[in-house]
């Protein structure tokens, strides 16, 4: 995962002009001789007209608002290919811009080796400020899963699974306390009574919150397994 400041990217420049907005890149691809970007913009009551004007000022050839509300817009932006995008395409890499905010954009990039990764970073740094956020190594057996997780259909399915599995504020507090006190350690370092006293709740209330949180976690693991297992090598 890398973070880039791209002076030739209208989307990134928009987030520089309007630091409060969040831009989620749904799709980004070359069409004929231009780059077509589909993005969801959370603009917190920034006028749509201003967003259009700033994108054009930043180098966009055109903008088309598909849907819009006071706080959110789905927009199609056409612009010239950025140097970062051309660099990725020239090396035939798997990549996807994810989020632009505050003058930079996060990308996920898959490279076949550390050597290629270093070459890509050096090429990108010629025209952009680039920072590596996270770096993970995967084997060839995980390639089908990567392909699965980067497909639009799977991303939608996974986002729905995660949304349904998010903990409430109370569940987050109780689970965090249970983890930190060793409730899930082996051997167990704290019991329900210890958690209840620390959280100033009844044992029954703590048990109820944990059961609901654990059910969400188990459902998430089970459903993720169902999604991924068919793509795993035997």
How would you describe this structure to a colleague?
With 234 residues, the protein is of the alpha+beta class. The chain has two domains: 2-137, no CATH class; 147-231, no CATH class. Helices cover 45% and strands 25% of the residues. The protein has nine helices and eight strands. The chain has helices at residues 10-17, 48-57, 83-90, 114-124, 143-149, 152-165, 169-181, 192-199, 203-228, and strands at residues 2-5, 22-31, 34-42, 60-68, 72-79, 94-101, 104-110, 129-132. Strands 4-5-3-2-6-7-1-8 form an eight-stranded antiparallel sheet. A hairpin with a 2-residue loop joins strand 6 (94-101) and strand 7 (104-110). The chain starts with a strand and ends in a 6-residue tail after the last helix.
Average pLDDT, all residues: 88
Q: What proportion strand?
A: 25-35%
Order of strands across the biggest sheet?
A: 4-5-3-2-6-7-1-8
Radius of gyration: 22 Å
The dominant shape is globular
Structural class given helices, strands, pairing? alpha+beta
Order of helices and strands: EHEEHEEHEEHEHHHHH
């Amino acid at each position: 995962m890398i973070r880039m400041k791209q002076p030739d990217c209208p989307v990134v420049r928009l987030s520089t002009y309007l630091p409060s907005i969040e831009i989620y890149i749904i799709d980004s691809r070359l069409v004929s001789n231009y780059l077509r970007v589909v993005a969801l913009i959370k603009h917190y009551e920034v006028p749509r007209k201003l967003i259009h004007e700033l994108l054009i000022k930043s180098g966009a050839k055109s903008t088309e608002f598909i849907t819009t509300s006071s706080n959110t817009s789905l927009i199609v932006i056409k612009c010239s290919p950025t140097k970062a995008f051309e660099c990725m395409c020239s090396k035939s890499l798997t990549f996807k811009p994810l989020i632009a905010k505050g003058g930079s954009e996060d990308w996920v990039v898959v490279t076949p080796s550390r050597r290629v990764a270093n070459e890509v970073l050096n090429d990108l740094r010629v025209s952009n400020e680039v920072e590596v956020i996270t770096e993970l190594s995967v084997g060839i057996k995980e390639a089908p899963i990567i392909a699965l997780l980067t497909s639009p259909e799977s991303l939608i399915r996974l986002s729905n699974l995660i949304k349904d599995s998010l903990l409430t504020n109370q569940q987050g507090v109780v689970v965090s306390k249970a983890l930190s006190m060793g409730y899930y350690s082996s051997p167990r370092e704290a019991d329900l009574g210890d958690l209840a006293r620390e959280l100033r709740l009844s044992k029954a209330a703590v048990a109820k919150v944990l059961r609901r949180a654990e059910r969400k976690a188990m459902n998430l693991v089970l459903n993720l397994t169902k999604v991924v297992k068919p793509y795993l090598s035997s």
